[in-house]
């Protein structure tokens, strides 16, 4: 399970750069740089104590009876779904005093990585070297489905084949799934997101962005062998720490041409979309208090993404970023072209360049309407059709290995607010017109002679998919039930199905060509720079490391730690401003709180989105913090790492304990943690 690797020479790795595979950890580098060599037992225990949230984010087991620690903003999807006009968990927070009071999440799945197996040879052997792009994609999809199905049948574990190094390697990840997950404690949003959008991605910070849940098995709290002990010792500056989490996606292998596509096309397109949706959610929220509550979680996610993408774009628009990448790429290609055995691989860069125009053309061709009810409808229609095929020929996400997770999503008991759905669907129909043109044949068919708002109202009124039983009936009835259905949303999904499949197939062929090209690029880089290193992030478990360290900004040194006294002072300094009022619980217990206790800290560990909720541990493997953000200087980490100013931001472990004991009257819960 645990192996070591000889890393590339230090000149190819910047500072504490790296999101390392748990089956290929940088033991040599850690020993050389920090005098620490993790044992197999240390790494396996940390891996088995870490979890992934299907809602996006990471977490960790922190007690033998199933307690799970993650961020408030990772848990906010569940908090929102468990809230109602009478019980606003987002605003008011929550504490279960007993197991019986813990609230079951409607559709949450946590994944614990149990094993990793290299299946590269088997995947590559199944793809004919002379196959067309279309055939190669189909052959690769078939062998991956076969491997996943065999693993599921043999082990009963969720089994996912993960593409690594742009397609140069394929690993089979097996996960134990926990689907009975219950809410134990969450602070108020005013504490978790103190400072609001103004402080988001900034530092210093004073946030209690933490939530505790519990996993159950057979109706009882799960009994866990692997969980993290919790350190009650404050961190010191320059202390070595580790982050075990699931970073989302990085593009560090990308060529200069691919980065220019992101800079000039993809990210501006995404930002335009996010700004549009932000205004939509804000306007809906202005209709009333209840509307604001219903829109709040989605609005927060949109605003967070908008600020993150703005930072990413800013980094790419800095001429120095592309200039640095161009210099590195030119030198690499010079070395490749000077080696007769490697020279044929240089064509991979040309292939990547040619693909960017095709990706640009596909940006506005999508027909997936971003609405919960439409998503249900499309998934039901696709599932009914895919079930008629052999497993190996099905779309990814609709195979036997993926079925259980798909059904959990489709059968979610989370509330669906039809007024919000109608507003979202009307806007999606308007966007469809803008992207494809008002005279487009498919657009005319979708609108059925009506304007977007009128058509959206008709579709919402004509669907029964709000009802879980209606969704179950269609799924269980299969293609016959779907074909016979006159549900308006199902009919819309059937109208769009052919185009959805066409767009998806085209994108998959582009991805296959990219995969083949980046596999060649990886081969060339490996032969020149040596083996080892780490692949781009894939929302799977990785280990990062760094040191607790401040930084300089605008001539001022930013200390690595903040404390509770600083939080109260920050609130006082911004008195009267939105998002800077600490909740009543904090103000009532100000005299009880030890103001010197660490609240937040920064370190140089290499993280991105998806790492939210990741545990931060010390050399002993004890939890010392909880990743919740990066500063604004770290937002270029999707494509380039720098530890000059870029920092990962965490809630301190001792700070969480202080809050539980001194503010939230949760001493009994605090006593369970780490035991």
TrEMBL record:
Pfam families in the cross-refs: Peptidase_S46
Keyword ATP-binding: no
One record GO biological process: peptide catabolic process
GO molecular function, one term: serine-type aminopeptidase activity
Keyword Acetylation (UniProt): no
Keywords, in A-Z order: Aminopeptidase, Hydrolase, Protease, Serine protease, Signal
InterPro entries listed in its UniProt record: Pep_S46, Peptidase_S1_PA, Peptidase_S1_PA_chymotrypsin
Protein EC: 3.4.14.-
Residue stretches spanning the membrane: none
PANTHER family the UniProt entry points to: PERIPLASMIC PEPTIDASE SUBFAMILY S1B
Annotated function: Catalyzes the removal of dipeptides from the N-terminus of oligopeptides.
Family that this chain belongs to: Belongs to the peptidase S46 family.
Name of the protein this chain belongs to: Dipeptidyl-peptidase
Organism whose genome encodes this protein: Rubripirellula amarantea
